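From: lab user (bench 3)
To: helpdesk
Subject: output format question, protein + cytidine-5'-diphosphate

Hello, I'm new to running complex predictions and I'm not sure whether the block I got back is the full result or only part of it. Here's what I submitted:
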Amino acid sequence: MTDNARQVLVRRYVRRGDDGKPVETVEEMFWRVAYNIARVEKSYGQDVNALAEKYYDILTSRKFFPNSPTFTGAGTPLGQLAACFVLPITDDMGKASTGIFQTLRDAALIQQTGGGNGFSFARLRPAGSLVNTSAGQATGPIGFLRVYDHAFGEVAQGGSRRGANMAVLRVDHPDVEEFVTCKTNEHSITNFNISVGITDAFMQAVEEDTDWDLRFPDVTSPKYKGFSGTLEEAEAAGIPIRVYKTVRARDLFNKIVTQAHHNGEPGVLFLDAANRTNPVPHLYKLEATNPCGEQWLGPYENCCLGSVNLSEHFGPDHTVDWESLRQSVVLSTRFLDDVVDANLYVPAVPQLREAALRARRIGLGVMGLADLMYHTGIRYGSIEGQEFAAQVIEFVRYNAMLTSIDLAKERGSFPAIAGSIYDPDNVTWQPPQPLFAYTHDWGRPAIDWTSVSEGIKAHGIRNAAQTTIAPTGTIATVAGCEGYGCEPVFALAYIRHVNDNGKDLQLTYTSPLFEKALTEFGLDDDERKALIEQVMADGSCQHVDAVPEELRDYFVVSQDITAEEHVRMQAAMQAFVDNSLSKTINFNAGATVDDVSTAYRLAWKLGCKGITVYVTGSREQVVLETLAT
Ligand code: CDP
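Helpdesk reply: Thanks, we reran it on our side. This is the complete output you should expect:
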């Protein structure tokens, strides 16, 4: 483990006493996590110690890490293990348990445990509309978003983590224009990421250049009293709908894109794409995601994320060690299913445990995809790279599903399986398909999706959702990955300025995989040093002639990849992730609003469930976990 990794680990994960001093070693920390997760298997008649040792091995070999809250929470009195939650907000101040201030209370309690929250504000009546109780005017979703933001600003999260939150507003909500610009000043609403919930109908209106209605149920209608559903549910219930304003769809779309070009927000979430693969449509429609956008959840649901470290699954001679990857996926899937039982959630919000046990969602993903691509010599972003990423993620999903079926055989399916897409009596789930036909053979063992369909029919499945690719902001640092989650590497070499008691200390970093490749290529120490100094200028080796062309071809970093290639990588992986994935579409500084618009449309057409963009240099305050940790 590198010094940096160990420091982060000790700072963030190791338990401390009242005096702030560590009360456990790093090894004891790993054992605490392994043992306390394995412990729940006692009720399934398993040998807890034997399993705990397996978990300990996979953690200490850095082949798999769960999300940070599992490290900080396992075996502690707090015991909250999940990174993300979604809470419902209905259009009342707090009469209902889902009302505005009731949910704020629930969210604050979750924040204290280190969990992030996502909310849809779409059910709140527009600003200025009538409030019966006070005969006054409604605050509206953006007003309440500010209230939430202030409240969360004051709530320090458990451990060393501060709260991330996501606010979603539908594109047909009358206040959407205000929402789109509510973070123009990047110093406002700092505790929230914001995303517009986009529908297919809206994208079609953009394509066809037609008008777009901003609508909400008529709050003065007697039928609206006590109603707490969505716009669509209001329509279905015969509640009159009022059109507040009609805009040109393209104008609204351009507003969103211009704002995102300006400082990366709002992101967009494609609601229909997400709901097309909603595993439990009989329970709810998906309306919101967690703070970083990779996890769609229903009301009160959480997801414990975990990531297999692809940089620890290298095979010899630039190959992939598929068998070890398979074994890691099998064990990690079991680990995450155990987390669903081991999690104490937040006892003061009992709906959380109920929702978690009903669908038993888990979110297994990867980190270090870029490392594996450096190792195998495949360029991130290229067509070959898109296929490689798809093949890897397909393999993870396939083995996660087989394991989840085995777990169902052993201990039962998730309780809400009847009526879901996995209902053994009526399986409507369709095996995933690649976006384009594969043409490469990287030695991957054959995949037979029919065995999954047959398995579900025979035994059901343990988890309503199995895969998600998280940002892995902290765990990838601890695991020593060069690439976070499924992202490309950010820079091959850079200088980091650290304030050391008032003195500016310069620390340099060089990608170990890059150095290794240069050495293997026969470059000596001096040649390497000279060349790396040039790479430090902007982190890329593309303009450094001394780098052998063969290496330059695949040692690409984020800025070397076009926005279109970023989107195509996202879409290629999305095809095999049942939830979603955390991915930023990076644009170079000269990108135009039109470029951003093209990327949004492409993402929608290719079936992505959302898109987040960042134009280099567009934010005053760039928080790069890569450098900050
Ligand atoms: O690497 P680590 O497990 O710490 O977390 P991550 O993969 O970077 O983030 C996973 C999820 O945790 C995010 O999508 C958020 O939902 C949540 N999170 C948060 O709420 N607050 C943070 N400061 C970081 C992450």
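A quick orientation on your result: The longest helix spans residues 383-411. Let us know if anything else is unclear.
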